[in-house]
Specification:
The complex is a heterodimer. By secondary structure, chain A is mainly α. Chain A is built from 11 helices and no strands. In chain A, helix 2 packs across helix 3, helix 2 crosses helix 10 and helix 3 runs antiparallel to helix 4. The longest helix of chain A has 37 residues. Chain A is elongated, with a radius of gyration of 22 Å. Chain B has 13 helices and no strands. The longest helix of chain B is centred in the C-terminal third of the chain and has 38 residues. The radius of gyration of chain B is 24 Å and the shape is globular. The termini of chain B are close together. Classes of the chains: A mainly alpha, B mainly alpha. At the A-B interface, helix 4, helix 5, helix 8, helix 9 and helix 10 of A face helix 1, helix 6, helix 7, helix 10 and helix 11 of B.
Amino acid sequence: MKGWQKLLHRLAQWPLAVIGCWCLLALLGPLLPLQPNEIDLTKILLPPGETSVLGYDDLGRPIFDRIVLGAQTSFLVALWVVIVSLIIGVTLGMVSAYYGGWFDQLIVQIIDIFLAFPGILLAIALAGIMGPGIENVVIALSTVGWVGFARLTRAQVLSVKQREHIQAAVALGSPSTTIFTRHILPLILAPIIVEASFGIAGIVIAEAGLSFLGLGVQPPEASWGSMIRDGARYLLVAPHMVLAPGIALMLVVLAVNLVGDRIRDYFDVRLRVTT
Amino acid sequence: MGHFLVTRLASAAIVVFGVTSLVFFMIHLIPGDPVEVMLGESARVADRENLRHALGLDRPLLVQWLDYLYHLMRFDLGQSLHSKQPIIDILLAHIPATLELTLVALLFAIVIALPLGIMAALHRNTGWDRAAMTVSLLGVSIPNFLMGPLLILLFAMYLGWLPVSGRESPDSVILPALTLGTAMAAILSRMVRATLLEVINEDYIRTARAKGLSRFRTILLHAMPNTMLPIITLLGLQLGALLAGAVITEVVFSWPGIGQLTIEAIHTRDYPLVQSCILLISLSYVLVNIVTDILYSVLDPRVRLGETE
């Protein structure tokens, strides 16, 4: 490979690098010597320059330090919401499709009603009624998030549950839990992983959206969404207050979407054969 | 067709009933006492009980629910706790703004997405295609509450062409609609590209070209009509998402619509108003989906034949 081709190849890896930075900052953030809440009135609205990488906000707090704090918020929320939605959605979807009957009917009806709502509206309403706070954001987004996983899992299980190896396992008297975890789950895991990876991008945007509306984390905690909201008031004098968290948010969402694309292509056998 | 309509409307009625009840129970079952919020924690017990009784909140939940449904059927949504006006009047005053914003946004989305998607499909795997899809990916990754301030910064502050916010002049709608429309255009252009790519290799396209039709007319008259089905479905689904996205966009631009009203009601703890706003947005969403379904069956005979067989 020529030099420039290598460089291109390297650049193609930037989404992974962004996601890596996001996770590292979120996990190691508490250990770093940062002062996200230190107010310095002499530095109010100072643009990026010699004293700091990303400048200062309307209270004279360093924006870089607050972005790291915001990375923690978005990472924690995304992690928890995906875990909770996955557990609830996949369990309900599997049980519902495998056993069928009235329980299946009920789950399908509930899924239909939830899908009749615009998801983000339901989350806004829930977060608004429960009051602000990171736990409530997780609860609100999980209440919306499980539906997609349940529907996907149900459809997948319906398509594989008549397979012979599963009938054999039933005939041999395997307990249902073994059938679910050993014989069904591995078959339907790929689309669920793809859905989860795109889900993370959606959750990061939704968390920032709730915080933008003032329904997410509360000050002095930081979220990229609340930073954008605070910055919007000083748009003309200090655009860096909106641009810095905005670009951070955009990079993470873009990176997660691109990696999601790549995971989908990897699992999509059809695509591999044709190209 | 009649049979299809009846079954479709019946299932829609079940969903409407479900949505209505879900909104009611969501508001009433979630921890948090509206009376305590309204009067503050230091209020006397007697005052609280009086207010609770006046609002009818001391009755069993099932009775409250039936009462709510009964009033809802007569379009009686009650009073706002905050302004004491009938809620139906408040909603009616805010609907036109949201409707205007959503429709203009939809128009922007179509105007941006169709050329972008067609161009990408016709020049598949070239620089044009990649550029169009990169623009589209950027559009998906920039949320409304970031796109809004960026557009304000560029067009309202640096260039000074358009108003920053509010709804005073006719051109106020451009920036919020553009904010809302770009996100939709991003998804739509991908869909246009994908469906056009599927259609473009069909035999009848080759026939049309072979009989001497120009490339432009072939695409316009033979390929595009056959891409309309999935595109209309997506438009329907997206219009619903647009209604929800309008909430954030309206807040960014102080646009006096239902979305901003919802957030204000949440912040002032005006529970009946919150409940009615959410119900209104959800029902419009359901309505849009039903209309999409019906439109779909009108456009594609296969759908309604499948239903009646």
